[in-house]
Amino acid sequence: MSEVEKKPPTTATRLRFALGALSGLLAGFAALTVAELVAAGVRPQAGPVVAVGGAVIDRTPAAVKDWAIRTFGTDDKLVLQTGILAVLVVCALVIGALSLRHRLLGAAGVLLFGAVGSAAAVGRPDSEGAVYALPSLVGAVAAAGLLHLLTGRLRTSGPSPGGADGHPDTSPGEGWDRRGFVVAATAAAAASAGAGVLGRSLNGSGDKGAVASRAGLVLPAAGSPASPTPRGARVRVAGISPFVTPTEDFYRVDTALVVPKVDARAWRLRIHGTGVRRPLTLSLDDLLARELIERHITLTCVSNEVGGPYVGNARWIGVRLADLLAECGVVPPSKGGRADQLVARSVDGMTIGSPVEDVMDGRDAMLALGMNGAPLPFEHGFPVRMLVPGLYGYVSACKWIEDIELTTFDAYDAYWVRRDWAREAPVKTQSRIDTPKPFARPKAGTVMVAGVAWAQSRGIDRVELRVDDGPWQEATLAAEDTRDTWRQWSFPWRATRGAHTLTVRATDRTGQVQTAERTRTVPDGASGRHSVVVTVE
Known about the structure:
The protein is 32% helix and 21% strand. By secondary structure, it is of the alpha+beta class.
């Protein structure tokens, strides 16, 4: 036995330890709310959670991003932010408990997290310099001061003179300022909550101009309207994807943790770069004054797995991109032009590179202003986005666009190319079974099998269905709207009892049959044939 016998922790000691961890949690809460308040004066994207989340996205390998989209779908950003907050909570609890004995070390840990947030914010593509570091730094300083204050209230006044056995009482659970801690912690929680509410309110008020500009926008009639949808383009089968995807159901895949809300009245687009003889800067009113085209166009995300949901068809209205480039003196490479890549830049710093040849080859590439008869929703790129039929979105569909630079593929790699995706990515011929769903249990007899097929800029010529290992049988194709839209198809299957595998394949207008070779989405889109397994009862 040692001269001073060690005693097990008392209830008071455990309470003090828990309150130390709570101090760290309160300090972390203060850091985030104060940072959000400061970000209201800088930019919401400069806040620590958004900045760190963006940095994580930027540095995540393509395969991991692909897994996240495949696993969590459009909730991937929510999962990321929740994960960041969970890590911060754990770290705050640990730092708070550590600060009971090492107050300066605990404060240093808080400041270290602030430095990480600042570095992430300054390093974002849309950063405006050192000012982006302010939210995280100010939040960290406030948190460090609060942690120092709270743990000071938990410090003991020293051991008591002696215990019942005559030995000194070395338990650190007695002698701390309980009343002072409760008052300080309550005041800190209330002040932090108030800062959070104020910061959120100020950030929201900064969006009012953007919201008002969208609400006040009236799209003029298109000078070149979409052709009437042919009779027979819509298949009447329960469970099939509608010919036009409702705006609220249209997929969204991007890296923006905070959807940019741009005031259309202040928005400008600059066109410049290699081979641009007459640079242009355009306002939204400048675009609205031009002839607008309206087209049904199917968009596809490169992250769409075979049979996946990240494809949709909408009615878009906008300005022909090729006309704008021609006005600037741009000539496609096939006619001697110096630039072979168009780099579109978003207000959030995203860069997307498109082949100039594809943009100017006669397809309906456009700067879109509206979607399904209304101004673009903010999450889909308001006030202006770019789209090029026949190319996957990551090389064509820049949202919130504000800059177009003409350059070459040799001179510049856009965001996704730097992350191991292909420079050029034409949409692959694909088809999907919408009904019956996988593992469905239809009744024996005639079962309608139906779905969609797409090969934008080429068009779909044939869709075939195979049951188990039987022969390919031609499905009935709905009428074609344009070669840039998907086509619905259907097949009346005489289903017999038992388990069956249904497989679909499409043939595009060039005669190319959808390949059976299965590949993942990286680097230029998934390939393979969609199958579903059903059990007929």
